[in-house]
Specification:
alpha+beta; two-stranded antiparallel sheet; 4 helices; elongated; 5 strands; single chain
Length: 128
């Protein structure tokens, strides 16, 4: 009958249609867990934090020396792309690609991660 304006809610600094707010939060939380889990395969520290150059938060993975190895934004556009990648069973490939990595790079990241773990283990044993 009447074209009433759609109602929006602010979530993480983004205007989300009110009827999609809960769905957005579930998707955001699900993708944050997926990114956290995946980044932990090659990063010593993984945090959810505000991204300086993009509105909103993201998941960021760091090496033991504090070098940022990977990040993924949790903005609505990225969440939509992550969801499509997950449905296509290409989520890890997508997260790698957004960080400029391919499968060979990932294998190298895994190797370096294992080397850093071994070095920490040796250092810990020397202290004991």
């Amino acid at each position: 009958m009447f074209n009433l304006p759609e109602k929006y809610v602010m979530i993480d600094g983004f205007k989300i249609p009110a009827d999609k707010g809960e769905e957005y939060k579930r998707l955001r939380d699900s993708m944050a867990k997926e990114a956290d889990k995946f980044f932990h395969t090659f990063c010593e520290e993984v945090k959810k934090q505000k991204l300086v150059d993009i509105l909103g938060e993201g998941i960021v993975g760091y090496s033991s020396t504090g070098e940022m190895l990977a990040r993924i934004s949790l903005d609505p556009f990225e969440l939509s792309a992550l969801n499509v990648a997950k449905q296509r069973k290409k989520l890890h490939e997508y997260m790698l690609a957004t960080n400029g990595y391919d499968d060979d790079d990932y294998q190298q990241l895994l190797k370096e991660f294992k080397e850093r773990q071994a070095e920490r283990k040796v250092a810990k044993e020397k202290k004991a």
